[in-house]
Amino acid sequence: MGPHPAVAAVRLAVRASLDGLEPGDLVLVACSGGADSLALADAVAFEAPRAAIMAGGITVDHGLQPGSAARAEQVTQLMTSLGLSPSLSAAVTVAGPGGPEGSARAARYKALDQAADATGAVAILLGHTLDDQAETVLLGLARGSGARSLAGMAARTGRYLRPLLRVRREQTRAACAAAGLEPWDDPHNRDPAFTRARVRWQLMPVVTEVLGPGTAEALARTADLLRADADTLDGMAAAEIAGLGGADALAERGWPVADLAALPAAVRHRVLRQAAISAGSPPGALSHRHVATLDELITDWHGQRWADLPGAVRGERRYGRLLLTRNSGPEVAPLAATARSEEPGGRE
Q1: Does residue 223 lie within any of the structural domains?
Q2: What are phi and psi for residue 29, nearest 5 degrees?
Q3: pLDDT at residue 297 greater than cutoff 70
């Protein structure tokens, strides 16, 4: 008699994700103790040895709740009992820009990267499910973030693998029950103070009720389609950046405005976003409005002297070239208005 259907579904997803890794490679499972990551850890512990792959695990203690250290220790012991070795715990400090959700995410990924570097792991497996993907698409829609945001999460991003993007959350919970594993439900996941919690428990049920039970799958499918489009446009933008001389040319002498103006808007916006990031603007703080303000120096120039961007980056149009430099003055507000020249028509 075979495994429970939910267990089989999770194992099959993990098997496909591990395909392509080499025998002897080490992977780490990021496990919070919740149903998604716990089902993932159990499946990896089963599948990895059959592919001659070594599998360990890591849990991150964000220190945001009483007893979090004890919880992290319990998760570490549980991973060990599943056969994951090494089983690690990393305590982090959550602080910095991006609010509690953004700063916790940044701290978590930093800890995961450090663990992979220290152990020599070639991949880190994350427990994001199809439901997480659908929620990500809805969040992107609400923020007006464009195709890349609506593309959601990729099955592979660098060293990060997401095997469960076609698995429903209800399946991971059923897999845990079938395996005799008791997941921990993080109270933050239901706290309406957090945007994703409101999307999960308030918005998604209404959307599903109104549009039908296949809504989550449709949103995830939309992410897949848009990711293919976004990847193509990003590739075109990268080729244009190389043709402009890359970040070195931008820093040394700027890029010709005429060449930028000739690009299709979708490509040009990606080129400008990458230019701002290369100049030191933090990706998480760089919004569509910032890129649009920079784009106005090229397509709607009528005297603007500069455009201030996050990270104290300043974009200027001089003598027919776009230059991005670090502003020596105080840090500007994230959505600072474009400063304008007092001289009619401005000056290049």
Answers
A1: no
A2: -100, 125
A3: yes
* Domains in the chain, number: 2
Q: Are residues 205 and 315 in the same domain?
A: no
Q: Report pLDDT for 329.
A: 52
Average pLDDT, integer, range 309-330: 86
182 and 134 in a common domain: yes
Q: With pLDDT > 90 as the criterion, what percentage of the chain qualifies?
A: 72
Same domain, 188 and 254: no
Question: Is 0.70 surpassed by the pTM of this model?
Answer: yes
CA distance linking residue 315 with residue 323, whole number of Å: 6
Are 210 and 249 members of one domain?
A: no
Burial classification of residue 240, based on how many CB atoms lie within 10 Å of its CB (0-12 exposed, 13-18 middle, 19 or more buried): buried
Q: Per-residue pLDDT tens for 210-246?
A: 999 999 999 999 999 999 999 999 999 999 999 999 9
- CATH code assigned at 62: 3.40.50.620
State whether 252 and 211 are in the same domain: no
* pLDDT tens-digit map of 141-171: 887 767 888 899 999 999 999 999 999 999 9
The whole domain housing 310 covers 244-340
- Mean pLDDT for the chain overall: 89
Same domain, residue pair 276 and 191: no
